[in-house]
Backbone:
């Protein structure tokens, strides 16, 4: 998006604010589809946790995408956005029996990653199709917090427990229609995908009624100019060939599924914040903005990089700044980063703010969560209002505690 358009958004809707480019989302969806065009049946499930705004979910539904959900609330959001239940896969981790039962009622594809839950579910619902999440014990991902397929991960049923899975399936007579894995995020080496795929193909041979194999996601996107990213075209070429070979040996054309989240929306998003104060100390020049880790926690949580541009003064000489927020703990977005000269009142844009940014925002320090805008063909659409004080207190229940209610009245003796 052009900086002039971003500044217009701040004029109309204020700051801080999240802005998403619908055309970038569309192009990413088409790019991944094209990468796997040699596969007869491809299904993309957009990972709702990356960015769960209803208008964004409706856009993915228009594109033909399904949804990857991890909570019953995300399932309900998907249904509200018009996505049909059979296009929603529900992959919870450690949830209650009640939540699983709700998913059965709603008719979505259930993905189970726990032996005990698998047995309990199969005994009660043998006719409900179930996908099984396998932990392939493959270490992958750009950060330990987002590597989920290794041996110490809480996710998935260990590939070494396959005999237990088979025993449960045979004893309950349950219907296994899919097999799934997710190794981590920010994976660069497509060899990781291909290695894990071989593990999944071997596991799939144990089930004769599969409809799909789900390879999760984890594609790395570029975070700055000249950054490296997952070569999805090369992955598509190699994995498609191997998948088609497997389908031939399996005797059935299965569906190849992915669950991209960050790949779809990360680059489409920008987060705009206004500079309140520029502060010179003995060692650093701080640019204080009207936001904090309550709105964008990834740099503090993951150590993630968000390129920062001064959209108000882009052509000025660059200086070193530390960009910080207004939260009462250290909330540093960038340390000694070269940015075009920053003045009070300038607007800074944080790039790659489409995925896991607003979705992890909070009301810490009793701050309001920001607005969201979706832009398409030059037109900005408000898709979430900025919160107000009424939003902050609407679910609170005020109780008056009378501290004097049980105190006995003392009577002084006469002198």
Residues:
């Amino acid at each position: 998006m052009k900086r002039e358009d971003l500044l217009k958004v701040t004029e109309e809707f204020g700051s801080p604010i999240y802005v998403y480019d619908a055309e970038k989302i569309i192009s990413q969806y088409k790019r991944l589809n094209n990468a796997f065009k040699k596969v007869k049946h491809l299904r993309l499930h957009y990972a709702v946790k990356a960015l769960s705004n209803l208008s964004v979910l409706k856009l993915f539904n228009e594109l033909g995408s399904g949804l990857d959900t991890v909570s019953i609330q995300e399932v309900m959001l998907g249904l509200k956005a018009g996505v049909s239940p059979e296009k929603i896969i529900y992959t919870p981790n450690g949830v209650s029996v009640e939540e699983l039962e709700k998913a059965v009622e709603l008719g979505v594809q259930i993905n189970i990653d726990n032996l005990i839950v698998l047995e309990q579910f199969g005994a009660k619902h043998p006719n409900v199709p179930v996908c099984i999440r396998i932990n392939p014990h493959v270490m992958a991902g750009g950060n330990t917090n987002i590597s989920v397929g290794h041996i110490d991960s809480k996710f998935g049923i260990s590939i070494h427990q396959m005999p237990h899975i088979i025993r449960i399936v045979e004893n309950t007579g349950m219907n296994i229609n899919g097999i799934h894995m997710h190794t981590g995020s920010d994976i660069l080496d497509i060899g990781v995908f291909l290695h894990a795929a071989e593990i999944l193909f071997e596991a799939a041979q144990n089930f004769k009624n599969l409809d799909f194999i789900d390879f999760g996601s984890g594609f790395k996107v570029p975070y700055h100019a000249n950054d490296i990213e997952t070569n999805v075209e090369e992955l598509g070429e190699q994995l498609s060939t191997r998948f088609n070979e497997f389908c031939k040996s399996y005797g059935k054309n299965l569906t190849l599924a992915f669950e991209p989240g960050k790949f779809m929306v990360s680059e489409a998003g920008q987060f705009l914040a206004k500079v309140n104060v520029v502060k010179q100390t003995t060692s650093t020049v701080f640019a204080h903005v009207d936001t904090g880790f309550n709105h964008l926690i990834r740099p503090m949580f993951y150590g993630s990089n968000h390129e920062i541009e001064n959209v108000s003064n882009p052509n000025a000489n660059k200086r070193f700044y530390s960009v910080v927020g207004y939260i009462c703990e250290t909330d540093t977005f960038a340390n000694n980063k070269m940015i075009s000269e920053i003045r009070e009142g300038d607007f800074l844009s944080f790039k790659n703010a489409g995925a896991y940014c607003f979705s992890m925002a909070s009301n810490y320090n009793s701050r309001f969560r920001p607005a969201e805008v979706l832009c398409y063909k030059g037109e900005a659409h408000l898709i979430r209002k900025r919160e107000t004080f009424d939003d902050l207190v609407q679910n609170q229940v005020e109780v008056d505690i009378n501290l004097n209610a049980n105190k006995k009245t003392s009577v002084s003796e006469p002198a």
